[in-house]
Amino acid sequence: MALYSEKVMDHFRNPRNVGIIENADGVGEVGNAKCGDIMKIYLKIDGDIITDVKFETFGCGSAIASSSMATELIKGKPLSEALELTNKAVAEALDGLPAYKMHCSVLAESAIKKAILDYYKKNGRPYDESLFADIDD
Ligand code: FES
Question: pLDDT tens, 35-60?
Fold first, then answer.
């Protein structure tokens, strides 16, 4: 069996939503101290809807595929839905990641949460701190 699914390879080779958003409403950057990989997510938000999302990932193929899939999953969605996105859901949408690569998908979940937190803070919006307690950065 191939180590990586077709979907992982597709999102690695043709990543969606790569780049930066000038004047983003929320930006979240996280890194993994062990592997040294870094992921940055930019959000454009209108009302409560994520109207645009871009990412920059300096990292492994699984991290790039996870960023690409995660951005596709939250684009056009309300913030409440994006906050519910788990790294497991990202990995499942990619038809799985090897167990020792699951931490790569955690970066995507954490970067999105951090970007939303950034948006809430910049705009003085009240938020439930417990939703951000598990940000892994
Ligand atoms: Fe570090 Fe994949 S090995 S994010």
Answer: 999 999 999 999 999 999 999 999 99
For the domain covering 6-122, report its CATH number: 3.90.1010.10
- What is the distance between the alpha carbons of residues 113 and 28, in angstroms, rounded to a whole number? 7
| Residue 37 alpha carbon to ligand 1 centre in Å | 6
132 within 8 A of 26, measured Cβ to Cβ: no
CB count in 10 Å sphere of residue 58: 12
Is the pTM here over 0.85, yes or no? Answer: yes
| Domain assignments of the chain as residue spans, ordered by start | 6-122
Residue of 60, 64, 87 best suited for mutating to test ligand 1, as the one with most atoms within 8 Å of CB:
60
Q: Read off the pLDDT of residues 1-47 as tens digits, 9 standing for 90 and up.
A: 589 999 999 999 999 999 999 999 999 999 999 999 999 999 999 99
Residue 59 CA, closest ligand 1 atom number: 4
